[in-house]
Amino acid sequence: MGNVVDAQGRESVKTILVQNGKITNVHNGKVPLSLPDLILLELADNEVVFPGLINLHVHSEYNIFPLWQSPAVWSNRYQWRNNDQYTQEIKNFKEYIESKWIQDYLGFTKPIVQSYITEKDDHLTATSIAIAVSEVQKLHGVITELQAVAGGTTLVQQTIKLENNASLPSFIVRNTGDPAELGLPFTKKVFSVVDFVRPGPDFDAPGSPIHARDDTSAWPMMRHPSFTDFLTSLQEGNSRYYASIAHLAEGRAGYLQRGKPDGFSRREFTEFRKALSQLPNPEALKTAHLTLTHACGLDYSDPDTLDFLRDNHISIVWSPVSNLILYRDTIPVKALLDHGINVCLGSDWAPSGSKHVWDELKFARYFCDAVSLDVSSAQLLAMITQNPAAALGQIKAGAIQTGYNADFFILRKQSPDQSALTALQTQYDSAVRCTIVNGRVIYGDEDLFVNTLAVDYQRIPLEEGQAAAKKVVSINSSLNFDLAKGLAQVDALMLRYATETLRLPNLRRTRLLSADDHLYQVRIKLVKSYLAELLK
Fold first, then answer.
1. Percentage with pLDDT > 70 across the chain
2. Are 337 and 343 in contact (CB under 8 A)?
3. Structural domain for 133, as ranges
4. What is the torsional sign of CA 367, 369, 374, 376?
5. Phi, psi (degrees; rounded to nearest 5) at 101
6. N or C: which terminal CB in the chain sees fewer CB atoms within 10 Å?
7. How many domains does the chain have?
8. What is this structure's pTM?
9. Is residue 222 within 8 Å of residue 200, measured between CB atoms?
10. What is the Cβ-side half-sphere exposure of residue 294, based on CA atoms within 13 angstroms?
């Protein structure tokens, strides 16, 4: 019971009844209910309920990574992916996390393995190694998802593949890799794609900073197998994939840097449209629920481009923080909104993006004000609630309505008189009272768990910061997961790589809350300064 935020950001007192993970009724006002085993969560006057936030563009496996100091401003993503500094500090670091933790830290894995096998032998068998790999990856997965939950997020793009059979479990939040989490039949897959095309064949994009501003328009281009899979699904009436989320044309847009679009990114979209036009049934695109991530390289000054996106119900994910850090450019978001194109916000990844999608909204508000774009706060709220739900095919998420998933987060305003949208744009993530997924309070202030809920929980260690130390998380007991031990283990493993390989012993992963992360706050201020320079 309490103040509930609607699609326009307006507040009104409601009573929300949740049963079996679904919203079964929404009553006006405070309505007393008498039901067996009813748990009442009544909000204070300065608290509001938002629908759980949706992040359709996040590489969650990078959430624990340190901030990356990019050595250049790039033209497109293929350049920095081939940069030596990126390879060592990010790509190889990730490979170490995925494949080397087992061998490099048997002190962590052996007790886990021995708890699963009957014979306590000193040698790791193939089966026990597989168990250990799963456990270490679970460690990685839980911690990366926790950062999202701490920011009010309840649904994220497909998380890391945690098992060899390519199943994609959710530990704390929902993810698009599990159709059941979206209310879809198990046969309806959401296809997450890194690239539809790439430079090549037999061509490596130059990764040296001295080539960062090269003309890329003549680079050779090759189709990635993922694009063939997508086109096949279209030809089969979208039978393979219910929805698809694909990176396309991630590079300099020519919007903030007028007249300087990236040539290869511009051609990516041209080749994309050309391939679609050759299909026997191009109309199938209208029901493919396609979302393009970044899509900076499109020629948005061309009305035909905007018509194509709108008429084929193609959504765009906007990540202004990452765009500005890597390219000093981004999309003309107001032009898309004015043309009726569905726009969502995505946090991208920790090395050069936002902490979580809520922080991306706060920066988007700053960006729109700085560039004098008439984009309302309600429109920005929709980009992390209703719009991504629509992009996924109008799933029952992103709104507080009967029959929808019982996913919420409760935000503490500075005062009862402060509007909900102002609080959303100004409060730190320390102001999250709790996050609720599937009707279950899984994260929030410790007093809520002590005084209202009979739920097991674990405290977030003090080492995470003063704000995080006041929060707790309820992790399914079947996971047999110790958060404090897990965080200490991750830090030890990452410190080993940072010290021995990178020779950067002071390098640390990002903290769970932006409220506690001074380096992250400095980074966001720096991105704002980049924008100010571009607008001079």
1. 91
2. yes
3. 54-400+482-534
4. positive
5. -60, -35
6. C
7. 1
8. 0.94
9. yes
10. 31
